Amino acid sequence: MILRNQVEWALHCCAVLAGLPEDRRLSTRTLAEFHGVPKEYLSKALQALSQAGIVSGTLGPTGGYRLAKPATDITFLDIVEAVEGRRSTFTCTNIRFNNPCRVPCADDETKACSVARIMWQADEAWRDSLRAITLAAHGAALAKDLSPEVLERNQQWLMSRG
Q: pTM of the predicted model, to two decimals?
């Protein structure tokens, strides 16, 4: 499974937005510059997040994005599905029916094959893993990974351009 670049960008942007003061917003331009990604493509990811109710955006000179709800209520899965959609990562096309040695069974039309069941189970496992991580939990982990100086420098850079 390969997720689009926009998923990574959306996750990082939401992590940054989670650390914003209540009264602040960040522009697409600022977020794109901070992460070194193309503004036009990032804008599409932010629009998808907005349509999913994860971020809220406003227009104008003081406009920009902020989280639409608390970081404790937004999971990594919410963000991934906002950008990629909710479809399964595996599509069964029932190639087993092409087997010239196959003996048809009464439950062929209702029972998925073992390959499909395993793949759907794996799809649900990675979704469960992402569903278990909130932006708030990620922020706590980030605070352990980065020094207070680095976090402060990032915050100052963002607020100076906000």
A: 0.86
